[in-house]
Amino acid sequence: MKFSQVLMLCLWLRSTSTEPLLPTCACTHKTTMLHSSLMKPMGIVSQGKCFQKAEFPISGSRWIRLLEDEKTIYALRESLTFRPCYDRLDAISGGPCPNIISRSEWGARRPRDRQSLSTPVKYAVVHHSNTPQCLDKPSCIKRMQSIQNFHMNVRRWSDIAYNFLIGGDGNVYEGRGWDTVGAHVIGYNKISIGICVIGNYTEYKPNEISLNALKRMLSCLEFKNKVINKYVLRGHRDLGSTTCPGNKLYRIIKNWHHYYWFKFSSAN
């Protein structure tokens, strides 16, 4: 077994002993031939077919093991895209995106200026606001306004720093939005989208509703083609000298697919 394969296996074992990995779905992005475990053709599926579970092979393999209706099938990696699973909610809601509160709804100030962001970008960067949490919509709106005022009045930035922020109420709040360069990571703002979870997560974890909103927001970025297919997930501390997004939140996202897989595979 090659060293890179041993490394991937050890990393997988480590991740299963700490935080559970984010369940992953695989969807075909073109007409795809499915194969049995003996690599015999089983039939063709069209673009857009999604499977509830996907198991990733040791680095270097072209084949992905898919589990659908208790049947084991295989497909070539290059014919699939990957994203978090949400219990078929996508089909009901018309997509994986969470509820997003617009700037006008939370009473955002007008930005002093803006620079267009060229998408899709390579990085999605997770932050925490290092402020108290907010647990309902009215308090989250006040927190959004407070963060924006601090960034514009004290930091002297043109707007709130992040592209999106996530409240403890489970809502996502529009910051600079989909197509505007943020001010959240020096050197990476033009090639990343910044998502901030409101709160301080040095000593405690975000609540489940916040984490679910973060997972859905990352899937939404893929759904809307705002990040590349093999985008790289990072915490702020990976790209700058900071403790952000806090030890507890950072430990969680390090076990998510787009963090650990693309850190050690040849896809990075």
TrEMBL record:
First and last residue of the signal peptide: 1-18
Domain of life (superkingdom): Eukaryota
Peptidoglycan recognition protein family domain ranges (all copies): 98-240
CDD domains associated with the record: PGRP
One GO biological process term: peptidoglycan catabolic process
Pfam families attached to this UniProt entry: Amidase_2
Protein keywords: Immunity, Signal
Domain N-acetylmuramoyl-L-alanine amidase: 109-246
Recorded GO MF terms: N-acetylmuramoyl-L-alanine amidase activity; zinc ion binding
Family recorded in the similarity comment: Belongs to the N-acetylmuramoyl-L-alanine amidase 2 family.
Identification of the protein by name: PGRP
Source organism of the structure: Acanthosepion pharaonis
